[in-house]
Amino acid sequence: MGQRGSHRAIIRRAPWWAKLLVGVGTILLVVSVTTAGYAKMMLDKVDNAVTTEDLLGNGDDLDSDLVGPLNILVIGSDMREDWAAAQSDSIMIVHVNATLDEASVISIPRDLYVPIIGTDCGGVPCHDKINSAFSLGGTDPAASVQGIASSLSNLTGVQFTNAAMLDFGGFTNLVKMFGSIELCLPFDMVLAHPKGTFVEKGCNEYDAKLALGILRERYAYGPETPGWTEEWGISDYGRQQMQQHFIKQLLKKAKQEGYITDPTKVGDLIEEIGDKMLLDLGGRSVSDFVFGLRNLDPSSLETLRVPSEPAEIDGTSYVVIQPGAQEIAAQALFEALRTDTLDEWIAKNPDWVNKKT
Fold first, then answer.
1. What would the pLDDT profile of 46-96 be if each residue is shown by its tens digit?
2. DSSP per residue over 221-251, as a string?
3. Same domain, 106 and 181
4. Taking the complete model, does pTM exceed 0.85, yes or no?
5. Which of 42, 48, 69, 292 could form a disulfide with 36 if both were Cys (CB 3.0 to 4.6 A apart)?
6. Omega of the bond prior to 115 within 30 degrees of 0, cis?
7. pLDDT at 210
8. In what order do the strands lie in the sheet with 316-320?
C-alpha cells in the first residue's frame, strides 16, 4: 500500500517543549507547596487559584486514592479572553504509570489526519486535522475537550482519566511580574504580531508583548527566511521549539527572582498562573491530585512522537501516519499506552523518542 499524500519534509527534531508546558504548572505548584511545608494556608491558595471542571464528562472518581495508570489529555490553548473563546494550539497525552512515579508525554500533531468523531461523510466520520475536533464544541470548553478526546480515543483506543486546558499565551503574564525575559533567537525575524516588528538574532531581554509575539510566530520558520536551518523545523515545529525555550527561560527567571524558593513570593506566583489552567481531576482538589503524584519527578519525563510525517492531500498540508513501518510503530505506541508498557515501546523505537537536553 502506498503512502498517503505527497511527502513534504521530514522534521528530524520534533518539538519536546510539550513536557515543559505540561509540567510547568505542576512543577511550580509542587515546588511551591513543598517550600511552604504543605501549610494549610498554601494548600488552600493552590486549590482556590486553579479552576476544576468535569471536562471529559466522566463524573467524579473519589471512592479511592489516586490510582494509576493515568492517561491525561492536555490541550495547550490560546485562551484570548476566556475559556469559551479558546483555540487549540497543541495537543498531548500525558501517561503516568501504574505506580505513579514515571511519566511520558506524547505530542499529537495538531494537523494529524484522522477520522473526526461527530462528523458525517456518507455514513462514516470525515477525515480532517485532529485540531478541527476542538471546534465542534463551539464555545463550551467541556464539549471542545470531549470532541478531541472522542477522536483520539477512536484513533488510539485510549480512554482518558483526566484532562487539562492550559493557556500558553497567558504564561507571558509572568513576564510582566518579572519585568522582562531573555529569549535567544536563532535568526532575524519579522513578527506577524505586532505586525511587521523586527527582532534580531541573538539573546535579548523582551517585555511581555514582544515575548508573546515571538512565541506566536510561525511564519518565520521556513527556507524563505535568511538564516533558517532545517533543524528548527517549518512553521509550527519551529514555533514549538521557541515555546520550549521560553518555558526553560521562564523557570530560570522565576528561580533567579526567588519566586520558587521564597515562601513570601510563592503565593503571588500561584495566583498569577492559577487562572491559566482549567483542570479535570476527577473531582479531586488540585492539592490532593498533586499529592498523589508526589513521587513523580518532572525532570525525568520522556517525550515521544507519534510516528508520522508531514504530507499534502488534495492541496492541503496534514501530518499523516504512513502505511508500513510508521503505522506499525504507531499502533504499537497506542497499545503501549493502553497496557502501560511504554518503557518497552521506548526501548524498541528510539527514533521516535525526543532527546533530553
1. 678 788 899 999 988 776 788 999 999 988 776 555 545 455 667 889 899
2. SSTTSTT--GGG-STHHHHHHHHHHHHHHHH
3. no
4. no
5. 42
6. no
7. 93
8. 6-7, 309-313, 316-320
